[in-house]
């Protein structure tokens, strides 16, 4: 199962990754039970997403501490959460309060980050398809921008220096408050999931450094624009081994050194190393950890941590995945070909990647009884199916679990990133409600609404309900 990234010999001190896993599972079990008891889950609300607020806070603290331990004192470090991993305003506000900024890749994500109160100077715009309007807004607000390609850089030139990329008399005009840089692709190769491999020879992202003339173009771009002060690369994502991620960071650092050396000034002062730390979906353990990755980076690229460069990170999945659970009621329990099938309310609409690419994105499933308690009993090979009208809508196939029966609950674990916040409207299935939970201090759990469940009226409105007669009103011939 290629989506389960074990990272092999890239990881050491694996026992670090096990800290908190048991506590997290205990909190999750208590939250499922409390959600049933409090009516967040039941016959009329058969699916919900649950977010572990304590776990999210812990992950943010671990990230900050990991890099604080390896950078020189006084080094500016911005951890910008990849909003695409969980585009929910309350989550972004929680992370903001935990010292985490935002990395955005669309006008919608920028709007969410602003609604959450993330400061412009703690926001990074990385979209590969930025329009002139998006660039103009970012520069006006003082948001950091990483130009993806020469044509985009030309647009930034036009916005900052209307008549010449070098200004009057070759002297650049004063830039906006935005920190500006170029995204590069070191072309070091991919990983086990092709669709998530961003540093291949033909990746759509960034300036391909090994293409003929590309490296010289990058150096010249910085030499002609003293306001270009950042360099960005993102080589990792799920399925990429740590060794390859580190190779990408090392290549980016080497380019920053070359630029500064060749133009004779320390112009590049910040390296944005992206994110992409893989998540272990095979067990409760959190591995690799931020601490492991930061130590390995410092050992491999010591010059990046000696105080001459600020750092930006853009982690997403690794911050949130372990702290989310999609819980769905078993509407019917049946048998087909001698195999039990639990038909639940969680399928392709919340777990799109898992349903369409189960080999790359397998999920652990936990069984709970009708009262939300962990289900006991012998393991039985069974399928856990979703509600969508096609045969492949399966959360898990041939999985050994205590037998799921009508009225029980199936929980898809490790779904805090790229799952319940990325709804796929197959069969016009409603978006589920999402609730954050935390211990109440009295032995129970308290919940906060992150997003209310979508109503039928909202589904109709999104599907053109206000324009029902629009097509019939057109002339027939």
Oligomeric state of this protein: single chain
Structural class: alpha/beta
Radius of gyration from CA coordinates: 24 Å
SSE string, helices as H and strands as E: HEHEHEHEHEHEEHEHEHEHEEHEEEEEEH
Number of continuous helical runs: 12
Instruction: Give the % helix.
Output: 25-40%
Q: In whole angstroms, how far apart are the ends?
A: 55 Å
Number of beta strands: 18
> What is the mean pLDDT?
89
User: Which runs of at least 5 residues are low in confidence (pLDDT < 50)?
Assistant: 1-19, 162-174, 189-200
Percent of sequence in beta strands: 15-25%
Description:
This protein is of the alpha/beta class. It is 28% helix and 21% strand. The protein is built from twelve helices and 18 strands. Strands 1, 11, 12, 13, 14, 15, 16, 17 and 18 form a nine-stranded mixed beta sheet that branches. Strands 2-3-4-5-6-8-9-10 form an eight-stranded parallel beta barrel, surrounded by seven helices. Helix 2 (53-68) packs parallel to helix 9, helix 7 crosses helix 8 and helix 8 (242-263) crosses helix 9 (290-300). The N and C termini lie far apart (55 Å).
């Amino acid at each position: 199962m290629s989506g389960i990234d074990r990272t092999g010999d890239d990881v050491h001190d694996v026992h670090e990754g096990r800290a908190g896993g048991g506590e997290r599972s205990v909190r999750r079990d208590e939250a499922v039970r409390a959600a049933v008891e409090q009516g967040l889950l039941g016959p009329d609300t058969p699916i919900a997403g649950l977010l572990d607020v304590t776990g999210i806070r812990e992950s943010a603290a671990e990230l900050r501490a990991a890099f604080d331990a390896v950078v020189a004192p006084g080094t500016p470090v911005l951890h910008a959460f990849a909003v695409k991993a969980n585009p929910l305003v309350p989550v972004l506000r929680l992370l903001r309060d935990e010292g985490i900024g935002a990395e955005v890749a669309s006008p919608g994500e920028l709007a969410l980050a602003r609604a959450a109160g993330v400061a412009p100077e703690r926001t990074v715009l990385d979209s590969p398809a930025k329009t002139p309007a998006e660039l103009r807004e970012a520069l006006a607000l003082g948001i950091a921008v990483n130009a993806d390609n020469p044509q985009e850089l030309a647009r930034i030139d036009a916005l900052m220096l209307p008549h010449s990329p070098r200004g009057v008399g070759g002297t650049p005009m004063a830039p906006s408050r935005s920190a500006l840089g170029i995204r590069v692709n070191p072309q070091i190769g991919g990983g086990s999931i092709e669709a998530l491999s961003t540093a291949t020879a033909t990746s759509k992202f960034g300036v391909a450094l090994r293409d003929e003339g590309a490296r010289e173009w990058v150096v010249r771009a910085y030499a002609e624009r003293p306001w270009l002060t950042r360099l960005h690369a993102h080589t990792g994502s799920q399925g990429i081994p740590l060794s390859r991620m580190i190779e990408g960071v090392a290549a980016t650092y080497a380019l920053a050194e070359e630029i500064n050396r060749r133009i004779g000034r320390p112009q590049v002062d910040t390296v944005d190393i992206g994110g992409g730390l893989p998540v272990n979906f095979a067990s409760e353990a959190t591995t690799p950890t931020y601490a492991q990755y930061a130590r390995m980076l410092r050992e491999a690229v010591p010059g990046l941590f000696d105080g001459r460069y600020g750092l930006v990170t853009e982690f997403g999945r690794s911050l949130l995945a372990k702290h989310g659970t999609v819980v769905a009621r078993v509407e019917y329990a049946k048998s087909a070909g001698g195999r039990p099938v639990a038909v639940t309310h969680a399928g392709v609409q919340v777990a799109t990647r898992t349903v369409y690419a189960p080999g790359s994105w397998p999920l652990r499933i936990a069984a709970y009884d009708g009262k939300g308690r962990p289900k006991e009993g012998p393991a039985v090979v069974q399928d856990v199916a979703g509600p969508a009208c096609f045969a492949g809508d399966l959360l898990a196939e041939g999985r050994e679990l205590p037998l799921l029966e009508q009225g029980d609950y199936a929980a898809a674990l490790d779904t805090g990133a790229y799952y319940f916040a990325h709804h796929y409207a197959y069969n016009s299935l409603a978006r589920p409600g999402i609730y954050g939970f935390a211990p109440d201090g009295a032995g129970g759990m308290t919940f906060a609404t992150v997003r209310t469940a979508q109503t039928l009226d909202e589904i109709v409105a999104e599907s053109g309900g206000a324009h029902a007669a629009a097509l019939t009103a057109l002339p027939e011939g």
